[in-house]
Automatic annotation (TrEMBL):
It catalyses: [(1->4)-alpha-D-glucosyl](n) + phosphate = [(1->4)-alpha-D-glucosyl](n-1) + alpha-D-glucose 1-phosphate. This is Alpha-1,4 glucan phosphorylase. The keyword Glycosyltransferase applies. Belongs to the glycogen phosphorylase family. Keywords: Carbohydrate metabolism, Glycosyltransferase, Pyridoxal phosphate, Transferase. It holds the Pfam family Phosphorylase. The keyword Plastid does not apply. Its EC number is 2.4.1.1. It is an enzyme of class 2 (transferase). Phosphorylase is an important allosteric enzyme in carbohydrate metabolism. Enzymes from different sources differ in their regulatory mechanisms and in their natural substrates. However, all known phosphorylases share catalytic and structural properties. Allosteric enzyme that catalyzes the rate-limiting step in glycogen catabolism, the phosphorolytic cleavage of glycogen to produce glucose-1-phosphate, and plays a central role in maintaining cellular and organismal glucose homeostasis.
Length: 823
C-alpha cells in the first residue's frame, strides 16, 4: 500500500529530527554522542559492545520519524493486520536495519573513521532467538515483508527473557545452556510503561442474570498477571514504512508484600511475583512434539489476552463501535498457540463489552484467521479439560457453548455419531481434551496450510470433516522468505553480482531474477558465479575450523543439512549414507571420489532423547572419518554447534547441496529449502512440502528428487511394509551393521543399538525404504559435480527461478484472499 504524506495525521515535521543528513561524518558524530550520553563511556575506553550499542542507538534514531509517520498511517482508519505468534525468530537486527535503510556503507565508513570495524561489532549483537525453528522464522520474515509492502501491521508475542537454549557439544553430546540475550540491554526496544493490561487466571464463575444462555456470567479470577508492552520497530525495505512488534512481559499485579518481607519472610514475600513473572521467563524449546504443560497454557493465554485487550482498546479509541472491528483489523493466529483468542475475544465482547452472543460471534469469526503448520498427530495441540477448567473456567464454558452451536445442526439432522465425534471441539476418545485446531478452525474466517501438498493433506486428513462442513474455509498460502535478509544481507557477494548484471531493480523485485536465466550458459558469468560462491565457502571453512577444529577444503562439494533435529527430517538417513559412502571409499580407495564435506547443524528438543542420540551419532561418525587418512581429501563430516539465524546466514551462501529429505507428507513446507535454492544450492529432496513447488519453479532437471511420494508412504504404511526387515537392501543392512559395530563408538559399542532397533522394528519414517533411492541420487549428484559447467548452470537457474518464494508474494496472497486489504 502506497501512502502519501498528505493523509498522514502525525506528520514527521512535528517530531524532533535527528541531526540532518546521512553522511558518514554526521553518523560519526551521532555515534560518538550515543557513546557519551547513552552508553556513558568514551572512545578511549569503549568496548566492542559499547560501540555496538552506540551504533544501534544512532541507527535507531533514523527510524523514529518514519515509525511515527507509519503509526499515524496505521491508525488513520486503514485495516491493519495483527500477527499473533508465540514465536518470532528474529536473529540480529543491526545488519537488517542498516540494509533496509541503505546505510551499511555510510555506517561502515563512519565507524572506520573511529578505528572501529563494522563487521566486528555487528557480530557482537546477540540473536533474538524467540522461536524454535521454521514457524518462528516465518513470523519474522512476514513482519519484514509486511513493513516492506507498507501494510499496516502489528506483531504480538512474548518478550522471553531467555530465548532458545544455546547448544553446546560435550564429547559430541548436546548440552543445553541458558540463553540471555537481554543481560546487556536491548537497544532496539522501547518499554511502554503506560501500556499495561491485566490478565486474569483461575477462580470461578458466577451467574448474574436469570436469562438463559451463555451471557450474564461473571468470572471471579483468583489471580491476575500484568502484561507490560515492549515495542520494537520493524523497518521495511528502503525505510519507507515501519511497523511495530509488540512483545509482552509478565509482571506480578500485586504489590510486593512488604509486611511479609519486613517480618523476615523474604522468600514468601516474593513467591507470587516469581510465579507471575515465570510466564515470560523462557521460550518453550518444543518444536512440534515437546510442549510444556501448565506454564505453556498460561503463556498462550497471557499473550493472547493482552494482545486482544490492546486491539480492542485501540479500536474503541479510534472507531468506537466494536461491530466495525472486522473492517479495521484482521488477526492471524500463527498455529494454534493463540487459538484461545476464539474464546477470549468472545469473552471480552460479551462479558466486558456487553455484546450479544450472535453479534460477538459474527465479529470474532470475521476477524480471526488460522494458519496450520503441521499435521503430525503428536503436534496437534490438545489441552485437558480439567486443566482448562482450573485455569480458564469462563473460557471453557464459552468453548462448550461454541461447540454446542457448532454441533447442534448436526444433531438435529441426526448426523452420524462418528461424524459428530470427529468434528467436536472436545475429544472424548481417551479422557477429555480441548482440540485447539478444531477451535481455531471453527472460530476463523479462513484457515490456511503452508504449501500446496500440506493444504491438500489438511483437506484429506485432520480437517476432512470440518472441511466438508465449511468447504471454502481452507486455502493454501505457500510459505516464503524475505530476500532482504536471506539474499541481500546474508550474501552480499552474490547480490553484488546480481545488481551488476540485472541492475538495482532486482533488489526491489524478486521477479527480476528470472532475467539471470540468459546467463546460465555464459561461461564468463559462470566463472564469476563460481568465484563468488568460492569466497563464501572460504568464509565458512574458516568458521568451521574456528568452531570445530576441522579443516575443510573450499573446493569440495559442501553438502548441507541444517534444521531442527527430528526423526521425520531424517538426519539419520543422511548419516547412514555417509557411513555407506565411507565404507565404499575404504573398499575402493583408488576410485575418483568426489570430495565432499557433509555439514550438519541443528538443535534437538532437550527431552527428545532419540534426536540427541542422532547428534551424538553425527559427531562420532565425524570423529572417525575425519581422522582416517583413507577418507582424507574425499570425505569430511562436521557438526556445527548452536545453529541459529546468524549461523544460517553464514552457511547458506556457502552450500552447494541442500538436504531436504523428510519423509514425504511430514514436512508441512520447509523454508530453509527456499533460502538455500535462492543462494544457488541444488536441492536433494523428497516430494514433500514446498520441495514440490521448488521443483516446479526450477525445473526437474535442476533438482535431485528421490524416494516415495506422500501417497506411496501411506500405502507402504497401510501394508505394514515399514515393519518388514526382510525388505532391507544389502547396502542399508551393511550401514546399520557398521553403525552398531562399535567402530564409531569404541568407548560404548552398543550406544546406537536403540537407533538400529527402532529402524528394524517400526521404521515409522521410512528410512530403509528410501535409502537406496537416496544413495543412487547422491551418486547422480557426484556425476553432475564432476561437470562444473553443468553444475553451475543448474545453480544459476535455481537462483534465477525461485523469485516466487519471496515472502512478499506470500503476504500479498494473504492480503488478497484472507485479510482483504489492498497492497
Ligand atoms: C514448521 C513446520 O515443521 C515447517 O514445515 C514449516 O515450514 C514451518 O513450520 C513454517 O510454516 C513448524 N514448526 C512448529 C513449531 C511448533 C509447533 C508446530 C510447528 S510446525 C512449536
Amino acid at each position: 500500500m502506497q501512502h502519501d504524506e498528505a493523509e498522514i495525521t502525525f506528520a514527521a515535521s512535528e517530531t524532533a529530527q535527528p541531526a540532518e543528513g546521512n553522511g558518514a561524518e554526521v553518523f560519526q558524530q551521532a555515534i560518538l554522542a550515543k557513546l557519551t550520553y547513552n552508553v556513558g563511556t568514551n572512545p578511549a575506553h569503549a568496548t566492542d559492545h559499547d560501540w555496538f550499542t552506540a551504533t544501534a542507538l544512532a541507527v535507531r534514531d533514523r527510524v523514529m520519524d518514519r515509525w511515527m509517520v507509519s503509526k499515524g498511517f496505521n491508525q488513520a482508519g486503514h485495516k491493519h493486520i495483527c500477527y499473533f505468534s508465540l514465536e518470532f525468530l528474529i536473529g540480529q537486527l543491526l545488519s537488517d536495519t542498516l540494509n533496509n535503510l541503505r546505510l551499511t556503507d555510510c555506517v561502515r565508513e563512519a565507524l572506520a573513521g573511529l578505528g572501529v570495524d563494522l563487521d566486528r561489532i555487528r557480530a557482537i549483537e546477540p540473536d533474538a532467538a524467540l522461536g524454535n525453528g521454521g514457524l518462528g522464522r516465518l513470523a519474522a520474515c512476514f513482519m519484514e515483508s509486511m513493513a516492506s509492502l507498507e501494510l499496516p501491521a502489528y506483531g504480538y508475542g512474548i518478550r522471553y527473557e531467555h530465548g532458545l537454549f544455546r547448544q553446546g557439544l560435550r564429547d559430541g553430546w548436546q548440552q543445553e545452556l541458558p540463553e540471555d540475550w537481554l543481560v546487556r540491554g536491548n537497544p532496539w526496544e522501547f518499554e511502554r510503561s503506560d501500556l499495561v493490561y491485566q490478565v486474569p487466571f483461575g477462580g470461578s464463575i458466577e451467574k448474574m442474570s436469570t436469562s438463559g444462555g451463555p451471557t450474564g456470567f461473571v468470572w471471579r479470577p483468583a489471580e491476575t498477571v500484568q502484561a507490560a508492552a515492549f515495542d520494537t520497530p520493524v523497518v521495511g525495505w528502503r525505510g519507507r514504512h515501519v511497523n511495530t512488534l509488540r512483545l509482552w512481559s509478565a509482571r506480578a499485579a500485586e504489590p510486593l508484600r512488604l509486611d511479609a518481607f519486613n517480618s523476615g519472610d523474604h522468600v514468601g514475600a516474593l513467591a507470587d511475583r516469581t510465579k507471575a513473572e515465570a510466564i515470560s521467563r523462557v521460550l518453550y524449546p518444543g518444536d512440534e512434539t515437546e510442549a510444556g504443560r501448565e506454564l505453556r497454557l498460561r503463556q498462550e493465554f497471557f499473550f493472547t489476552s493482552a494482545s486482544l485487550q490492546d486491539l480492542l482498546a485501540r479500536h474503541t479509541r479510534l472507531h468506537g463501535d466494536l461491530n466495525t472491528l472486522p473492517d479495521h483489523a484482521a488477526i492471524q493466529m500463527n498455529d494454534t498457540h493463540p487459538a484461545l483468542a476464539v474464546a477470549e475475544l468472545m469473552r471480552l465482547l460479551i462479558d466486558e463489552h456487553a455484546l450479544a452472543w450472535d453479534e460477538a460471534w459474527s465479529i470474532t469469526t470475521r476477524t480471526l484467521n488460522y494458519t496450520n503448520h503441521t499435521l503430525m498427530p503428536e503436534a496437534l495441540e490438545r489441552w485437558p479439560v480439567s486443566l482448562m477448567e482450573r485455569l480458564l473456567p469462563r473460557h471453557l464454558q464459552i468453548i462448550y457453548h461454541i461447540n454446542w452451536l457448532h454441533l447442534e445442526p448436526l444433531i438435529r439432522r441426526s448426523a452420524d455419531v462418528e461424524l459428530i465425534k470427529a468434528v467436536s471441539v472436545i475429544d472424548e476418545s481417551q479422557g477429555r481434551y480441548v482440540r485447539m485446531g478444531h477451535l481455531a478452525f471453527i472460530g476463523a474466517h479462513k484457515v490456511n496450510g503452508v504449501s500446496a501438498l500440506h493444504t491438500g493433506l489438511m483437506r484429506q486428513t485432520v480437517f476432512r470433516d470440518l472441511n466438508a462442513l465449511y468447504p471454502d474455509r481452507i486455502v493454501n498460502k505457500t510459505n516464503g522468505i524475505t530476500f532482504r535478509r536471506w539474499l541481500h544481507q546474508a550474501n552480499p557477494q552474490l547480490t553484488h553480482l546480481l545488481t551488476r548484471e540485472l541492475g538495482e531493480a532486482v533488489l526491489d523485485d524478486p521477479g527480476a531474477l528470472i532475467k539471470l536465466e540468459r546467463l546460465a550458459d555464459d561461461s564468463a558469468f559462470q566463472d564469476c558465479f563460481r568465484n563468488q560462491r568460492h569466497a563464501s565457502k572460504v568464509n565458512l571453512a574458516k568458521i568451521v575450523a574456528e568452531r570445530t577444529g576441522v579443516q575443510i577444503d573450499p573446493g569440495a562439494l559442501f553438502d548441507v543439512h541444517i534444521k531442527r533435529i527430528h526423526e521425520y527430517k531424517r538426519q539419520i538417513l543422511n548419516i547412514l549414507e555417509v557411513i555407506a559412502l565411507y565404507d565404499a571409499i575404504r573398499s575402493e580407495p583408488e576410485r575418483n571420489w568426489v570430495p565432499r564435506v557433509k555439514i550438519f547443524a541443528g538443535k534437538a528438543a532437550a527431552s527428545y532423547h532419540r534426536a540427541k542420540l542422532i547428534i551424538k551419532l553425527a559427531n562420532d561418525v565425524a570423529r572417525i572419518i575425519n581422522s582416517d587418512p583413507a577418507a582424507s581429501g574425499r570425505l569430511k563430516v562436521v557438526f556445527l554447534p548452536n545453529y541459529n539465524v546468524s549461523l544460517a546466514e553464514v552457511i547458506i551462501p556457502a552450500a552447494d547441496l541442500s538436504e531436504q529429505i523428510s519423509t514425504a507428507g511430514m514436512e508441512a513446507s520447509g523454508t530453509g529449502n527456499m533460502k538455500l535454492a535462492l543462494n544457488g544450492a541444488l536441492t536433494i529432496g523428497t516430494l514433500d512440502g514446498a520441495n514440490i513447488e521448488i521443483r516446479e519453479c526450477v525445473g526437474a532437471d535442476n533438482i535431485f528428487i528421490f524416494g516415495m511420494t506422500a501417497e506411496e508412504v501411506e500405502t507402504y504404511r497401510k501394508a505394514q511394509m515399514h515393519r518388514d526387515r526382510s525388505r532391507w537392501s544389502p547396502r542399508f543392512e551393511r550401514a546399520i551393521n557398521l553403525m552398531t559395530s562399535g567402530i564409531f563408538s569404541p568407548d560404548d559399542p552398543h550406544r546406537f543399538d536403540t537407533l538400529a532397533h527402532a529402524l528394524s522394528s517400526d521404521d515409522a519414517f521410512m528410512v530403509a525404504a528410501d535409502f537406496d533411492s537416496y544413495w543412487a541420487t547422491q551418486r547422480r549428484v557426484d556425476e553432475l559435480w564432476q561437470q562444473p559447467s553443468a553444475w553451475s548452470r543448474a545453480s544459476v537457474l535455481n537462483t534465477s527461478r525461485v523469485g516466487w518464494f519471496s515472502s512478499d508474494r506470500t503476504i500479498r496472497e494473504y492480503a488478497d484472499e484472507i485479510w482483504k486489504v489492498p497492497v
